[in-house]
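To close the chapter, one final illustration. This time we ask the reader to focus less on the individual chains and more on the assembly as a whole: which components sit near each other, and how the overall shape emerges from the parts.
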Amino acid sequence: MSTAVETPFKPFSLIAEVTHRCPLHCLYCSNPIELQRADEELSTEDWKRVFHQAAELGMLHVHLTGGEPLARKDLPELIAAARAAGLYVNMITSGVGLSEERLATLVDAGLEHLQLSFQDIDEASANHIAGARSHALKLALVPILKRYPLAFTVNLVVHRMNLDRLEEFIALAEELNPDRLEIAHVQYYGWALKNRSLLMPTQEQVDRSIPIVEAAKERLKGKIHLEAVFPDYYASFPKACVGGWGRQMMLIDPLGQAMPCHAAAVIPGLEFDNVRQHDLRWIWQSSPAFNRFRGDSWMPETCLACPRKEKDFGGCRCQAFLLTGDAEAIDPVCVYSPAHGLLTTLRTSAPEILPIWRG
Amino acid sequence: MDTNSIPRLAPGCRLHPTEPLLLVPEGTLNLAGPARDILAHVNGKLTVAAIVDTLLAEYSGAPKDEMIRDVLNLLNRMEQRGVVRS
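The assembled structure is written out below.
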C-alpha cells in the first residue's frame, strides 16, 4: 500500500489542531470523543517545521483551530512562523480569553482572518449550547476586532434548538457587521453524533430555512459575503467531503498525527503517520491513511459505475462507517445506498431530552 | 464604483507573492489575464483613473476606453464578492 507514488493531487490547506483544550463544551463539537492531553501536544518547534513543510508542499492556507488555539501560550510564535513560511493564517476561536492586548500581538504576528462562532441569539440559550458562559464575551469582543486590520467571519452554527430563530440570528450577525458570514448546519461527528437526536433539525425546519438563507444572500451582496452549509442528512446525494479523500487538505491533530479529515480516526484499521517521524511531503504521498480512499479502486460497484463519483469522490467515508459499520459502503446520504432509509427515518424521529457535553 | 473611486483590498485579502492568486478568507481566487496587474495597483490611495493611467503606461498601445471598462468590470465583480472595497 505505501509505495512512494507521486500523487496527482496538490494539497491547498492545512488544518492545525494545535490543542484539544477548550473553555467551551459545545454540544456539537466535532473533536474526537477521546480528547488528547496537553502534555503530549506538539512543541513550538514541531509546528514551525510543519508550517515550513506545508508551504514547501504548495499549501496556501493554514487554519489554526483546536480546541481553543488561545490555550497555547506560543500562539504568536506559531502565527509568525506560518506567515514567514508563506501561509495565509486563519484562526478559529471562541474568543474566550482574547484581550485587546493579546489580539494586537496576534495581528502583529501576522494573523489575517479570525472566525468567531455564535450559538444562539439570547444569552441563556447560547451559553447552554456552548456549555460555558461565553456569549456576552463574544459580543464584547466584536467592536474590538473591528478596529484591527484582519478579516472577520461570524459563524452561526444551526440545528434543531435554534433553527426556528434563523431570521433573528442572521439579524444579530448583520449588526456585528463581519466581512463574512457562515451559516453552518451541525455535521454529525464526534460529540455532535452523540447529541444527534437533540440537534438534528426537522424536515420542516430545514425547508423553512432555505429561502431565509437565499434572501439574506441577496440582501447582503456586496456588503457581507455569505456562505451556507446545508445538512447533508437531508440531501439525496453525498457531499464531496473535504474535497475528496487525500485530494485537497491535511489535518494535523495536537499529537502530530496527520489525517485526511477531522473524523478519520473513527475508521477502524487506519493508522496515522506522525509529523514527529515523517515530513509532510512523505505523508501526503505515501502515508497509507491518505491513500486508503484515494481514487476509485475502493468503491462499491454502484459508485464505480456512477458519473457522480467525479463530483463527490464517493462522499464521506467516516459517515459511511458511522452509519453502516462499513467504511467502504456507499455514503448513506446517497439515494442509491441500501442504507438510505436510516436517514429518512432519522428525519422524522422525535428528539431526545438529555444533552451530552464534551469534556 | 467609477473612475473617481479609490479601491482597496478588503481586510484579510492579499496577492500571492509569486502566483496569479488572490488569497482571501477561506479561499483563493485565480486571477486570469491582466487581473493580477490591475489588483497590484489597488492600494487605497490611487483612484481607478490613476490605476488605468499606470496600466496604460505598462501596456503600451492598449485603448483607454477598453481599459477603463475592463478595470471597472473586474473591480465591481471583486467588490460584489467582498474582496475589494471602495
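Chain A has 15 helices and nine strands. Confidence is low (pLDDT under 50) at residues 1-5 of chain A. With these observations in hand, you are ready for the problems at the end of the chapter.
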